[in-house]
Amino acid sequence: MELTLKHISYSYNPDAKEPKYAVKDVSFTIREGEFCALIGHTGSGKSTLVQFLNGLMRPTEGLVLFNGENIFEKKYPLKTLRQKVGLVFQYPEHQLFEETVLKDICYGPKNMGLGKEEQIDSARRAMALVGLPESYEEKSPFELSGGEKRRVAIAGVLAMNPECLILDEPTAGLDPAGRDDILGTVRELSDKENIAVVLVSHSMDDVAVYAERLLVMNSGELVYDDTPRNVFRHYKELEKMGLSAPQVTYIAHELKKRGLDIDENVMTIAEAKAEILRIFKK
Amino acid sequence: MNIIEILHLIHEYKEYDENETETETVRAIDDVTLSIEEGSFVTVLGHNGSGKSTLAKHVNALLLPTGGTVVLCGQDTLKTGELWQLRKNAGMVFQNPDNQIIASVVEEDVAFGPENLGVPTEKLEHRVERALEKVGMTAFRMNSPNRLSGGQKQRIAIAGMLAMKPKVILMDEPTAMLDPVGRKEVIETVHELNREEGITILLITHYMEEAVDADRVIVMDGGRLIMDGTPREVFSRVEELKECRMTVPQVTELAFELKKEGLPLPDGILTTEEFAEALMKLRT
Amino acid sequence: MIRDITIGQYYDTDSVIHRLDPRVKLAFTLLYIISLFIGHGPVCYAYAAAFLVLVIVLSKVPVRFMVKGLRGMLVILIISALFNVFLVQGEIIFRWWIFSISKEGVRTAVLMVVRLVFLVIGSSLMTLTTTPNDLTDGLERSLRFLKVIRIPVHEIAMMMSIALRFIPILIEEVNKIMKAQIARGADFESGGLVKKAKAMVPLLIPLFVSAFRRASDLALAMEARCYHGGEGRTKLHPLTYQKRDFLAYAVLLLYFGGMIAMAAVLP
Predict the structure, then answer these.
(1) Considering A193, A194, A206, B252, which has the largest number of Cβ atoms within 10 A of its Cβ?
(2) A78 near A71, Cβ under 8 Å?
(3) pLDDT at residue C5 greater than cutoff 70
(4) What's the predicted TM-score (pTM) here?
(5) Is there a single domain that holds both residue B86 and residue B215?
(6) Going by C-beta distance under 8 Å and a sequence separation of 6 or more, which residues neighbour residue A134?
(7) Could you tell me the residue range of the domain that residue B139 belongs to?
């Protein structure tokens, strides 16, 4: 699997003399099994960007290539693409509509034209992937808790067996444990199922723990595309964009300032702990 | 003086199945006793379904007790006839910014509360002006709320409360749907109101960092009040918090982890500076 | 952008007509429509046209906006014109196969079209120059007398203004749900009517659920802000008549009286 954006731009008034760009000249490639995070201030263009990835929106300039093929070519089967590139919107539980959890998760596979048995098989598999027990199959999605509903919604996309999964702020509005549950599930999908993940997030602490690669958007442009560690080195620039570094990185900087010989680029609690213990256990 | 007095509060509701027959009685609040001092800033923590929102809704009589009593500004919510008379003392800001703005123009939305209270037109103007000033939204007075950011919408909602001149503002996860910038806007605004106007704040949140600057932190679990103390006291109990599906701020957790490994750090470290200071002390 | 959609078609500018009290404009619409039915013959319609032109000029709304409102009416206009042309009996001026056109038919058709055009422009003038909120306020105040016969005027007005606030939000919501379902392979475009209707279910159910959730949230928020019906409520901007409003009423009555006189005098 390879999903490439090539010089993508999007503007609301492409014919105007001075077009206003929501996305401007963005290029990157997502490869098989990768765990990327996409960060950026509200209005930086990241929500628009993710909709190009499965052809829901059409850029005004540039190409989107899936396995080398232009997805906006006339005869290109966009439906198949949307199955391979699953997109989980913000508050995805708001799209649930069926009487039972199982039926709702079957909606995607049904649209793909799978037979009844196959639909149910993929739905059950998806439920297992997100950690929903079998006993939930016949429950109404509307009687579940917020976190559970969200799992059902994510399973609804996973049931189509995507090779790439895009999640737009999947933890919004959940309590701390709910946030950890969802992110843990996503990490497992990436590790065990080898699904490429693009996680849109506002939490630097989370992306530092989970992502291998960080894409940073600012005013419609892709300003960084690197490992989280390298991106967070630019924490001063990030702050100017209304972003920040993980809290742990700030702690390390503070310690460094006070004369401790610490690697100031640690990002997670585990790393900081190891680093401080290294110094103090000498 | 205690502005809110909650005594042995119990709240139960009945669940019904499809045939409208009663299936079970759920106890959302289970014997909570709590008093809150006027002018204090109290943060309520707890996972989803722990009963914290139900508790807050009892304070302004949106819900009435099944058992026990709730007294707001000296008035028992069960013994007050006209509940709206009581509610002007305690404004409430909700989670979803869109679903609490009533009018299509900012100033008219802010005026909605005092209009209901029957404040004369000449005075309304002044109240709206002052409320918008307090939350720093004067420039948006004639705007449509639809074009504002989440943080700005929540500030409008706060202004709508201020215009009723309440003594207490209850905040039911006001930052849950906001981005980090919006969260900061809202929390800073609330702290300012607490400091400058002496308004008592009851803030319900899932973000531990928002609890750090409170005067007092309350933790709820299963409808019960399980912890009550200063942020330092509450966040010292890292393991207990994790047991009831909560976390602590990152710096607190790091200090806790290091302590477990034998570094003699104090409990309940809340800020980066504090942590750095404590750690550097070990060095010398 | 979708958030900017407003109900009706308010044209934002500053004019005498814009500044008039909405109650005056409601009265204008009502009386103007009645006047069109009282009047008959070219002289009356010329009089009505002159008055309309005067108001349009004062309103500073570009004429193309008026015409826009007519576009939707085009089919109705054509059909009613054709009916009149062919079906009204009288002195025949043209005959072909089974169709015949009479002098009276043409005359009625023309008058009918003129009447309809004036009617549409006249009433769209109100929505073009009055914000939906002012309109709601105006209706609430003008219809207050209906409370006597137990029509909940305040509640209806409150519902209207809440609807005005939430329609753009719900439109955006439809958009979002639609995209989410398309991402799950939904197809809202192809297929016959039945298939299309069926495809709407995954869109409509979430929309209803969301609308109900919003409604119950809003009810709670309103209660928390001491809402207890219209009793004892004050207003930030109560409607008050200015000098210009009385003047406008006078002009309106003058016009209306003129029309009655003309209709009585002319054959």
Answers:
(1) B252
(2) yes
(3) no
(4) 0.89
(5) yes
(6) A124, A127
(7) 37-66+73-243
Chain C residues near residue B126 by CB distance under 8 angstroms: none
Count up the domains in chain B and report the number.
2
Helical pair C103-129 and C22-38, crossing angle rounded to 10 deg: 180
A195 φψ region: left (φ > 0), alpha (ψ -120 to 50), beta (else): beta
pLDDT tier for residue A258 given thresholds of 50, 70 and 90: very high
The gap from C-alpha B36 to its chain's centroid, in whole angstroms, comes to 13
pLDDT tens by residue, A56-81: 999 999 999 999 999 999 899 999 99
A29/C190: higher pLDDT: A29
Q: Best of C1, C226, C228, C231 to disrupt the B interface by mutation (most B CBs within 10 Å)?
A: C226
* Terminal Cα distance for chain B, rounded: 46
Two structure tokens written together for C164: 């005005």
Q: Check if the beta carbon of residue B88 is closer than 8 Å to that of residue B166.
A: yes
Q: What is the largest CA-CA distance in chain B?
A: 72
The pLDDT confidence band at residue C6, using thresholds 50, 70 and 90, is very low
- Max Cα distance, chain C (Å): 73
Min mean pLDDT across A85-94, B206-215, B244-253, C104-113 is at: C104-113
B2 within some domain? no
Q: Which among C183, C206, C210 has the least Cβ separation from residue A54?
A: C183
Whether residue A110 contacts residue A187, with contact meaning beta carbons closer than 8 Å, is answered with: no
Structure tokens at C66: 């008026």
Cβ neighbours for C264, distance < 8 A, ≥ 6 positions apart: none
Q: Are residues B180 and B264 in the same domain?
A: no
**pLDDT band, very low/low/confident/very high, at A128 (cuts 50, 70, 90):** very high
Check: CB of residue C24 under 8 Å from CB of residue C248. Answer: yes
Please tell me the predicted confidence (pLDDT) of residue C8: 56
For residue A178, give the nearest of A131, A128, A123 by alpha carbon: A131
ipTM exceeds 0.85, yes or no: yes
Neighbours of C68 (CB within 10 A): 13
Count of CB contacts below 8 A, A vs B? 88
